[in-house]
């Protein structure tokens, strides 16, 4: 039985410490310690974290580290890395770290080392991606396969979407990637209208191979291909990534064309496995492996570095600090890089599916908040949409500002302007502008006393809004691997502190089940009892569709 975290000594100390620090202004913390910016940062190879613009002092950090110790974080990390079945509700090990265990040190699940099978699939991926990229594996009519269409949803889509976009600069010149995830027929139509069947390879990604969206989309694409090239073309244009060979073969894909992964890899943690096949097809296996190397670097850092200088640990603890003590329940991720534009959606699933839980590991409903609400968007676009609320709204949203120092497209002054904006946001969020400063500024700009008095509050920024600044040398495969692994481990730290299982996702099941009940009713095949609103909506839509 695990202790209720809210009843631990460390938690109580933080609760009383919070009362003494909640009104402290970060601008005062910086004024009283001119070296604060140099003190609170950690660097790892090509990634640098500045966490000085957060509302904490040394004492806070000590209490937070005590909280981690109290949660037995060190042993929990070891349990994950060594294949213990920490996904207790599904009785599964959680081994995305084994997928990038680049030294291949043995990792055992049920007494069996999983590394040989992981390495065998990596080798199979290399052989296949090389063959497609160099034109040895051709389409049915002998043409090179240059359109890669990933069909998958959730964890079988978001990683490939995010990473292929992030690594666009590394794509083979003649390869183009497309993604079909949504069941909406428009998603299929959008892609199929752009591609030629003779040069298209469909990669059907589904761990279970039973997901209705993916199978429906795959069937539509299969029909489209067969209509154009005939049934025999399927084996040259369809491959599958799955744990379910039986269903893959039932669908009509030769299991020789199947890339395996395993139950110990959760969907949202799977882009390091064969689920990343479309990433590897786009950027080449060498670059895919560099991404694994970067993640491995972060894994070693997370596993072996003292918590006081451990990037994912510090980030996770600060999130708990804000979520549970300040009541800041949202977290924003703002990559100042166009190619990282899908990172916020990727992280949305990672954090909200992992830690959006209400029952703890002792099978009790929790009595404290878990799971932050994550959102974001690429800077500077985001600045011109939702940043108003972040600067002047009544809700405080801690942010991660992710800033590559070097751009892949150094065009004129674009990159300097971009970086200047990122750093300015962090400074503005921290410092703000007092009513007095606003009034002074307005007076200096020549406004009358009346105008100053009318405008000064509207021009005030309360400040004291936390940001982490994450500087990347450049968005390359290695650094991307580090960055994504950093967030995976941050989510893990939060889950450990909250005593929840971050690796199941039972919350997505109810809606799926009810949809299957409603489907026959929309077809007019049967009727069932629903609440009056749902029944009325079913009738209304049937009427409109007639
Ligand atoms: C992720 C979830 C979920 C899953 C999709 C697709 O952790 O498990 O997003 O990835 O529901 O499932 P399949 O890969 O089984 O089609």
Based on the model shown, name its key terms:
binds glucose-6-phosphate, 3 domains, 13 strands, Rossmann fold, alpha/beta, globular, six-stranded mixed beta sheet, 546 residues, 48% helix
Give an overview of the whole structure.
There is one protein chain. The protein is α/β, with parallel strands linked by helices. It has 3 domains: 226 residues, Glucose-6-phosphate isomerase like protein, domain 1 (Rossmann fold); 192 residues, Rossmann fold (3-Layer(aba) Sandwich), CATH 3.40.50; 38 residues. It contains 23 helices and 13 strands. Strand 10, helix 16 and strand 11 form a beta-alpha-beta unit. The longest helix has 22 residues. The mean pLDDT is 96. The structure holds glucose-6-phosphate (G6Q). Glucose-6-phosphate binds next to loops.
């Amino acid at each position: 039985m695990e202790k209720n975290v809210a009843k631990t000594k460390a938690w109580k100390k933080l609760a009383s410490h919070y009362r003494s620090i909640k009104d402290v202004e970060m601008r005062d913390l910086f004024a009283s310690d001119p070296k604060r910016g140099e003190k609170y940062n950690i660097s790892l190879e090509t990634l640098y974290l500045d966490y000085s613009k957060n509302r904490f002092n040394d004492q806070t950090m000590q209490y937070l580290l005590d909280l981690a110790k109290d949660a037995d974080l060190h042993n929990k990390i070891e349990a994950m890395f060594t294949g213990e079945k920490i996904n207790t509700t599904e009785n599964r090990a959680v081994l995305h770290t084994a997928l990038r265990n680049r030294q291949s040190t043995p990792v055992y699940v049920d007494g069996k080392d999983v590394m040989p099978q992981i390495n065998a699939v990596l080798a199979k991926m290399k052989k296949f991606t090389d063959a497609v990229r160099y034109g040895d594996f051709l389409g049915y009519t002998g043409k090179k396969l240059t359109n890669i269409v990933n069909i998958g949803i959730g964890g079988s889509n978001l990683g490939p979407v995010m990473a292929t976009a992030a690594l666009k600069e590394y794509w083979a010149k003649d390869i183009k990637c497309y993604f079909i995830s949504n069941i909406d027929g428009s998603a299929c139509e959008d892609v199929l209208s752009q591609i030629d069947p003779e040069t298209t390879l469909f990669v059907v990604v589904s761990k279970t191979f039973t997901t209705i969206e993916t199978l429906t989309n795959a069937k539509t694409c299969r029909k489209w291909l067969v209509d154009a090239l005939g049934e025999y073309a399927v084996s040259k244009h369809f491959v599958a990534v799955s744990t379910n060979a039986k269903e893959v073969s039932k669908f009509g894909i030769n299991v020789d064309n199947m890339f395996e992964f395993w139950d110990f890899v959760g969907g949202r943690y799977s882009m390091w496995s064969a689920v990343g096949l479309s990433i590897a097809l786009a950027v080449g296996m060498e670059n895919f492996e560099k991404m694994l190397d970067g993640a491995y670097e972060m894994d070693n850092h997370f596993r072996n570095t003292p918590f006081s200088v451990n990037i994912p640990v510090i980030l996770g603890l600060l999130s708990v600090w804000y979520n549970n003590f300040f009541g800041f329940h949202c977290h924003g991720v703002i990559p100042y890089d166009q190619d990282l534009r899908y990172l916020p959606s990727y992280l949305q699933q990672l954090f909200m599916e992992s830690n959006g839980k209400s029952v703890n590991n002792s099978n009790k409903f929790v009595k404290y908040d878990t799971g932050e609400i994550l959102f974001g968007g690429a800077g500077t676009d985001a600045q011109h949409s939702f940043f108003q609320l972040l600067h002047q709204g009544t809700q405080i949203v801690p942010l991660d500002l992710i800033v590559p120092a070097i751009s892949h497209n150094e065009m004129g002054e674009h990159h300097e302007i971009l970086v200047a904006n990122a750093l300015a946001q962090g400074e503005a969020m921290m410092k703000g502008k007092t009513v007095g400063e606003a009034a002074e500024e307005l007076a200096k700009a020549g406004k009358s006393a009346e105008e100053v008095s009318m405008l000064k509050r509207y021009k005030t920024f309360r400040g004291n809004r936390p940001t982490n600044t994450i500087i990347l040398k450049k968005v390359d495969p290695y650094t991307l691997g580090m960055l994504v692994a950093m967030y995976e481990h941050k989510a893990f730290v939060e889950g450990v502190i909250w005593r929840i299982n971050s690796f199941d996702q039972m919350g997505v099941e109810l809606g799926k089940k009810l949809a299957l009940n409603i489907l026959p009713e929309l077809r007019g095949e049967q009727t069932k009892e629903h609440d009056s609103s749902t029944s009325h909506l079913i009738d209304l839509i049937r009427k409109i569709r007639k």
